[in-house]
Amino acid sequence: MKPLVIPPAAQRDERSIQMLSAWIAENGLHCTLNIGFFDGNGHTEAKAWGILLADLVRHIGNAVAEERGTPAVETMAAVVASLNSDLDLPTSSCVGEFHVGHS
Questions:
Q1: Alpha-carbon torsion angle 99, 97, 36, 33, nearest 10
Q2: Where residue 32 sits, what CATH number does that domain have?
Q3: Quick check: is 80 in a domain?
């Protein structure tokens, strides 16, 4: 198992909240999602997740730019194109269980 580093800001902020974790395991994607957090804090769940995903795409673009020199906007456009394509024609099934609670 190869976990990623917890960002320093999340370590410093005692009110930080983990919103998602994604793993490739057993030949598929396995994730945990903090569903209900946004609704519980006065936001529309779907809209807030859309904003979170947009921020994530920007972070991916910036990280690839820093690591490989590819312009961030180019990577972001490729990610969004791939996302839209896979939403229209999924490359894998999305099955799983929903568990409530924290470890």
A1: 90
A2: 3.30.2370.10
A3: yes
Amino acid sitting at position 14: E
Residue 101 lies in a domain: no
Query: For the whole model, what pTM was predicted?
Result: 0.87
Length of the chain: 103
Range of the domain at 59: 19-88
CA distances from 26 to 1, 33, 48, 100 (A): 12, 19, 30, 22
Token pair, residue 93, equals: 């099934």
The answer to whether residue 78 is domain-embedded is yes
Does the pLDDT value for residue 9 go beyond 90?
Answer: yes
Mean pLDDT of 71-83: 98
Decide if 37 contacts 17 (C-beta within 8 A): yes
Pair 92, 26: CB distance under 8 Å: no
- Which amino acid is present at 40? G
